[in-house]
UniProtKB/TrEMBL annotation:
Pfam families, per the entry: Amidohydro_1
GO molecular function: allantoinase activity
Source organism (scientific name): Phellinidium pouzarii
Residue intervals passing through the bilayer: 31-50
GO CC field: cytoplasm
Protein name per Swiss-Prot or TrEMBL: Amidohydrolase-related domain-containing protein
GO biological process: purine nucleobase catabolic process
Superkingdom of the organism of origin: Eukaryota
Keywords from the named record: Membrane, Transmembrane, Transmembrane helix
Domain Amidohydrolase-related: 413-511
PANTHER family: ALLANTOINASE (PTHR43668), AMIDOHYDROLASE 3 DOMAIN-CONTAINING PROTEIN (PTHR43668:SF5)
Amino acid sequence: MDKKAVLDIEHDDGDTAEWLARRRTRRHRPWPIVALALLTFFVLGTHIHLTHSGAGTQQSVRIPVNAEAIQTRCENLKLQPGPPPTFNTRKSSDRFTLGTKPTLIKNATIWTGRVNGLEIIKGDILLDRGLIKGVGPISADVLHNLDEELITIDAKGAWVSPGIVDLHSHIGDDPAPELSGAEDDNSLKGVAQPWLRALDGLNTHDDSYHLSISGGLTTSLILPGSANGIGGQGFVIKLRDTAERTPTSKLLEPPFTLNRSDAMDWSLPPRWRQMKHACGENPRRMYKNTRMDNMWAFREVYDKARKIKEEQDVYCEKALRDDWAGLGAFPDDLQWEALVDVLRGRVKVQIHCYEAVDLDDIIRLTNEFKFPVAAFHHAHETYLVPDLLKKAYGQVPASALFATNARYKREAYRGSEFAQKILADNGIQVVMKSDHPVQNSRYLLYEAQQAHYYGLPDNLALAAVTTTPAQIMGMDHRIGYIKEGYDADLVIWDSHPLALGATPKQVFIDGIAQLTSPHTVQKPESFQKVPETPDFSSEVADAIKYEGLPPLAPGKSVEGTVVFTNVRSVTVRSEEGEGVVSAFDAQRDELATIVAQSGKITCSGIKNACASFLGTPDAEFVNLKGGAISPGLVSFGSPMGLLEIQGEISTGDGYVYDPLAKSVPNIVDGDATLIRAVDGLQFATRDAYLGYRAGVTVGITAPMSGGFLSGLSTAFGLGSAHKLQKGALVQDIAAVHVSVGHMGRTPSVSTQIATLRRLLLEVGEGEVGSRFKDVADLTLVVEAQSADIISTLLQLKKEVEGNTGTVMKLTITGASEAHLIAKDLGDANVGVVVVPSRPFPYSWEHRRILPGPPLTRDSAISLLLAHNVTVGIGIEEAWSARNTRFDAAWAALEAAGDITKTQALALASSNLEKLLGLEVAAEQADLVATEAGDMFDLRSKIVGVISPRKNVVDLF
């Protein structure tokens, strides 16, 4: 600001005489005194003193020495966040690491993210100084200048995409393995705390960083948890290691206000800030509040911020017109400044919010206090109220979703796999996010693959984990695209990114290759194209019509004749009942016809082999269009069948008493009792029906336990309406289940082993005694993660067999570290159910996982199979039962041919039955009909189940 303008103040006649007199007096002072006074003014003075009249009185006006800085700061309040004007001309990234050599990626198929995700370029990419320097044809002169240092990679036509971007993660704030010394994602000190910062809890020692990078993830928005209405401020990070090894060095464009420095340059536009809000169940449960209480907490703090903002606006209005009288210091409050910035539209507000009631509350809040929302997260009902989202203040919030993770609590109960498509059809931006470690961000791309499978267009599906989250977090000027001048964050894939199991060949962050000697798998040629997907138009319409709760029971159960035509392959159980074999695989156009009557196949063959059945009265005809008949799958590991909504215990059977924790009531025979899961079964749950519609026909579940002893598991049909329906119960009692692990201070692991030894070697009372004594016939299933605990269990098995002279049936489930003793497990004839099928170091006893490609050649599953261990795969939560077929397919894909298709099917069917004590004759095993492909094909859709057990064919 021009200082002359500050001093050039007009005076009326009433002040002129005194003003001139004061000037004359100053002239008569000795010059040294005047000089000293001036020096003192500039060195020590803080204000310029002038006088002016007001209503005939004199008043001293203090003009701050930093008046220009104040006015610049006030002008800054009008600016919206964004890069500085010179950003696009930068020659080097602010994150460039000295010594990083330039890299040329040749012969790539490049999905740039541009043109709404529709642009694909065949060509080269040049990376230098942390930036993308060129895309497409690269000038020979440019390459010549880099010749001595240039690293060249021939992509050989491989797909290259921008690095994966996660809009919702707790990586670092909730590090793996989880330990009490580093759980820093939630504060329990108040409902609304906008002053908290996720950065202050960002731990650099999190095993997730390198695991997630191996899945192509390059950037994450780290948000506080959702225990609070306002959990605090989030920060965008790049996941790579830095030379500084600090949380701050991971930050991407941190706000200038990070350290509240007086030396801030207020002439620059601000950078985007991030803030986490949460509504609904989480803060409600944490603070025992109602929704009314929580919304008042929001309104109260926003009103506080509004008042501060108004004070600032009044202050700046005066400062900018040089009205310094009584102005004082700039009104600011460290505790509330971030929320004031929200009201100025300078913060990307990310809101954890599920149901229409909560969404409506927040939309009203935005209009009351006039602030925009960047995205609703989880957002399970946004697809039901798209027009409501369009009423938000300022802009339409995006929806950041899971693909199929739903029904785990009340507010997620109406979640739909078709939400992404419905929202996109309504013009709402869609983001797929991980909520890491809720879902492993290493597999964030899998969320996009599932969204695409259920109807989201391929360009929007890939954008949902790249360009769209980059835009929503305010970073799309530098990440989310492969574009000249953007950060050199990209991934070279082994297949099309939307193909199941797509895995990085290399990942670059800031131009630095992240994978050392990556292990790659040669994928089929068909995986290099955008996957074809089924038509779910009718299901989409039903999701809207029934407000997220469409009927899921089989549409038709046929007891008579069903003729399946145009069948490309048939895979069935072996005659011995163990294993899976190929019964038919069509060559070229010789497709088969399969006839089922009363739920049993009565004819199969090509050409006219089943011609006599084609005229059967009332026969149902199903054209599989080159599809397949495959074994029905089995689900294990979740409480499915005993619990409808995981977060609502009243919807389930409840937990059994654990005799190692407290005494069991005598009325149930005390510690001698053994609870049977069959007695608590509930049918027709939504997860069971969704699993059934995805080819999972049988569930095996053990009583829910939070401790050592679970009880007797049972096997049941997922497609049955109730227990009395024919075929609903597959086997009343399957196996006896216990868990051995680190459960806290007590009981110790050694106490649990001692208890198990006593149960196996000493004659106990009641059903506990009789069942544990019968270890030769009844399988003992032990949940254990640590290789040390599993080793002890193998020793115990040997001890029991030596003392009893019988061969003990032992199966290990969980088994995160089982690969470390794969040979020992094979030698001991002990099978393993890997839960989940793709490992993660959740806790200390999970930490030594075998991650699989691209980090290791072998996966845990392939290594165990190589040592002749019978392996099955399981799930942790009931919602994921529907994805079992993709889990099995993925296991085969990353095994580089070591696991055949029939072996992969066995992982989720016959192997599980064998390991968990289920005895099913081959002729009684369910078969699943898929249209347009087999069980492992993203083109395919389950259209029916052939069930000898129920004597029907269920059609969907």
